[in-house]
Amino acid sequence: MRGTVRSGNIKTRIGIGLVVAGFLLPLLGLIVPFLGFSSGVSATLIGFFMIGGPEIFIILGGALAGKEGVLLVKNRAKRFLGLPEGEYPASRSQYNLALFLMVLWLVSLTLPYYVPFIGQWIGSLTIKWYYFVLGDLVFVVAFLFLGGHQMIIKLGKLFTWEPWELPE
Fold first, then answer.
1. DSSP per-residue string spanning 1-54
2. Alpha-carbon separation of residue 137 from 25, 38, 54, 100, 154 (angstroms)
3. Quick one: which H or E segment has residue 80?
4. Of 28, 80, 134, 137, whose CA is between 20 and 30 Å from 46?
5. What are the boundaries of each domain within the chain?
6. 88: alpha, beta or left, given left = phi > 0 and alpha = psi -120 to 50?
């Protein structure tokens, strides 16, 4: 199924723009250190562009764009990545790779905070923290696209309340 957007629906267009901006904001965070701002302003802008801004833009954009707008953006991203459009099941190896990337993403997010040596090692590198944050964003996008529709459905069920049925 291919998503279409009527040309007159400004709310959907704004939503699609916000979703696209949410995925492009981390790229702006990469150029902030070269703009000559003070360290406080640079840290604030990088934090917004890498961490806070994308989430806000994607959530607001998804709410404004609606199902058709999100489907349109998803299909265009799949076409850009050379994947077939629409909802289709992932192969077993594709799904396992998505699970591996998800675990790697969770480890890369949590390990530096719980193992002091790793946090200090990353801090001593000449690579800045925001490159690691950008890498984490790439992992999220990769495992969502690789996992296919069933990965998105399973993640959606994590946030859906379902009543328990207790045995009698």
1. ------TT-HHHHHHHHHHHHHHHHHHHHHHGGGGT--HHHHHHHHHIIIIIHH
2. 11, 26, 10, 15, 19
3. helix 53-80
4. 80
5. 1-83, 87-162
6. beta
The number of beta carbons lying within 10 Å of the beta carbon of residue 31 is 11
% of the chain with per-residue pLDDT over 70: 88
List the one residue out of 5, 20, 21, 24 whose CA is nearest residue 66: 5
Tokens of 122: 């990353």
- Residue range 109-137, pLDDT digits in tens: 777 767 777 767 766 666 666 677 777 77
- Whole-model pTM: value is 0.51
Report the C-alpha dihedral over residues 17, 41, 32, 132, rounded to 10 degrees.
Answer: -90
